[in-house]
Amino acid sequence: MITDQAKVICASKYFTSEQIRKLYHKGVHDFGENRVQDMLIKMEELNDLSITWHFIGHLQTNKVKMMINEIDILHTLDRPSLAEVIQKYREKPLPCFIQVNLTEEDQKSGIARENLNQFFNDIKNYDKIEIIGLMTIGKDDDPLKTEEAFQKLDELANTYHLPFRSMGMTNDYELALKHHATHLRIGRKFLEFI
């Protein structure tokens, strides 16, 4: 829809089930939700469609049990305590992106770059977690810092031999593509297609 270089996920937090249904029938089959309760309601309302559900928001450990077997991919694995709870409740291996905080903003979730090795060691024996790539979020209104973060994520994914990079949203997806994004999380842009 925007690119054939990367999988485009519709970040559907502000979309109704009816709008998601319309997009699905126009060929969009990957949707990303930020809030557990909203996602579960939409899943129920759209359970006749073959949607791939991505969870792209901060996931609280106390919400894991109710949703972890409903989603297809998690983009925001960001701490050992979350990995532990996923391991406890997930029934089959879950493809996960590790969220890395590369803009070093306190309000953003994510593992610090210097703690990645330790995190990989912490979760290496968790058979319900399949690490497929890394994820990061750019810095609002700062294209330079955002591009630096995307470049670092690309380098880290190469270092760890991971195939996928989840980065880039409506305002910065072109920068993400420049640094080999494989998964874009696009929201507002999809309103043009409804």
Detailed description of the structure:
The protein has an 8-stranded parallel sheet. It is about 35% helix and about 20% strand. The chain is built from 7 helices and 8 strands, in the order E-H-E-H-E-H-E-H-E-H-E-H-E-H-E. Helix 2 links the parallel strand 2 (about 30-35) and strand 3. It is globular and about 45 Å long. The two termini are about 15 Å apart. It has helices spanning about 15-25, 35-45, 65, 80-90, 115-125, 145-160, 175-180, and strands at about 5-10, 30-35, 50-55, 75, 95-100, 130-135, 165, 185.
Question: What features would you highlight for this structure?
Answer:
single chain, 194 residues, alpha/beta, TIM Barrel, eight-stranded parallel sheet
What does this entry show, briefly?
This protein is α/β, with parallel strands linked by helices and 194 residues long. It is built from 7 helices and 8 strands. The chain has helices at 17-25, 36-45, 64-67, 80-89, 116-123, 143-159, 173-178, and strands spanning 7-11, 30-33, 52-55, 73-77, 94-99, 129-135, 164-166, 183-186.
Number of domains: 1
| Biggest sheet strand line-up | 7-6-5-4-3-2-1-8
Number of helices: 7
Radius of gyration: 16 Å
Query: Which structural class should the secondary elements be placed in?
Result: alpha/beta
Let me know the CATH homologous superfamily. Alanine racemase
Q: Return the CATH class.
A: Alpha Beta
State which percent range the strand residues make up: 15-25%
Q: How is the biggest beta sheet arranged?
A: 8 strands, parallel
> Tally of extended strands?
8
Q: What integer is the average pLDDT?
A: 95
Q: pLDDT under 50 segments (min length 5)?
A: none
**Mass-distribution shape:** globular
- Separation, N- and C-terminal Cα atoms: 13 Å
Task: Tell me roughly what share of residues is in helical segments.
Answer: 25-40%
SSE run: EHEHEHEHEHEHEHE
CATH topology, which one? TIM Barrel
CATH architectural category: Alpha-Beta Barrel
